[in-house]
Amino acid sequence: MDTLTQAALGAAVGGAVLGRRLGRKAVVVGALLGTLPDLDVFIDYGDAVANYTQHRGFTHSLFVLTGLGTLLALIATRFAPARDIGFRHWGAFFVLCLVTHPLLDALTTYGTQLWWPMEGSPSAWPVVFIIDPVYTLPLLAGLGVGLVTGNGQRGPAWGLALSSAYLLFAMGAKTLVEYRLEPVLAKQGLQGTPHLVQPTPFNTLLWRVTIIEEAQHHEALMSVFDGNRVPVFETFERGAELEPTALALDRGERLDWFAGPFLRYEVRELEGKATLVATDLRLGFPGFHPFSFTLADREGNEWRPAVPTELLNSDARADLSALGLLASRIFSPEPPLCTSDFVADRWVVDIPASC
Question: Residue 314 — pLDDT band, cuts 50, 70, 90?
């Protein structure tokens, strides 16, 4: 999630745990702890792919943060003695302010390495967009009450309760969409294929469905208000013929570990060279995928690994007005909102007549 939300979450947790004893101090320290895991953005891991895939790594590990929280609790118990705050309360304060950050991150699409240094792909159970005002505003309101009144517990606790209730609603909305999607996939013979259901920007009412089927991927939008209406699927190329070449490269293999099959491959002419580029299809929206990386340059008939760089998306065919179209799609499936309207023609394979 964004930095403001993580700071607000840490402050709310801190206030809920020790606000009665520490007052405003619990809120301020909680906010600082809530942003601490994201300091890894200042670490340069060597190249664009490494920075992309190692963000939310060791600094988001539940093992590392629990250990750090325990250490801070020991220090506070020793050097900031308080008659009614023992090690148990300090431990709950520091550990919860820290670990709630990666736990919230894991509820977004990007992926969080909760179990580092254990092997395995990042954890991601996307139920909220990376920025969601409906989640953040109750936290901020509760903090405002706590800072103004000096009661560091009541306001933050109420804000935390409301934001947590919103997460439960988001989980229910996703479950409903997946329940409606399952028979559609079965009817089209797509059950068992890799697929991703995630919220569209800034809301949990309209959901984006991405299905990977070998050389192609299918996109659809499903609203919680669609009822039994069959979703409109659009089909796009994903350059799967280039996938073996990418996977033979160290950085291509790393991207595959991070994003799984949700990658698109293409050859672009960059600085007079044919360059292999991989794009993460999970993040953003069709036509607005922000993360594309160079992997190799073609020299004659061979591909030579290149130092990965991040590219700006050059295929977008729409502007922020698309957000308004998404908002209108939440409440009405007619007229249909077609993602192919935003995607470069060269990727489009099949679109329904309604588009």
Answer: low
